[in-house]
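SAMPLE LOG
Freezer: B-3
Tube label: C17
Construct: single chain, 198 aa
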Amino acid sequence: MAKKKEAICVPQIEIAQMRVPITGRSPLICDRMKEAAREVLEGKARGKACSKKEPLDVKKFWKESLYPIPGKKNKYGFPAAAFKSAIVSACRYVKGIPMTLARGAIYVTGDFVEIKGTPVMKEDIARNNNMPGGGAAVYVVRGCFPNWSAVLFIEYRSDVLTGEMVVNLISQAGFSVGVGCMRPEKGNGGNQNGRWRL
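STRUCTURE (predicted):
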């Protein structure tokens, strides 16, 4: 006897979109991997010996720390994935939204979020924490946006989260988590960079 065919009903996923303008409340510090560092890592992966260190070209290092937006001259961005990660981390400060839910229900679209503002060179003395005993002091040059703003283009599952919940998470992320180097999420209470307000 032939089995009866059963119709399978697939529920539709409800997706909503929003654009959320944000304004920096503290400097955004970029730290894209330098081309020289990438070459050293690729060389090590292939078993090649490291070449001698070249003198530090400060201007080149500063430029390489920024995230240029492909196809847009003199326009810079920041990885959209960093903003999503901050939004997911903000679930720690909000009751009733598990990080696992937010991770699968909220997306910051595109590869980069365009940053409006003028980058400047930021020079720091930092510790190389990968070294035993805390590491030696190293001179670090990075791109920094002292005053910045951006627009986050968000897609979210409106069948599991409301728009208000998503905006609240973005706000919490801007205050408590941040993006970029020396943000509140990474390190001690002195790390205040990469924060924003709605």
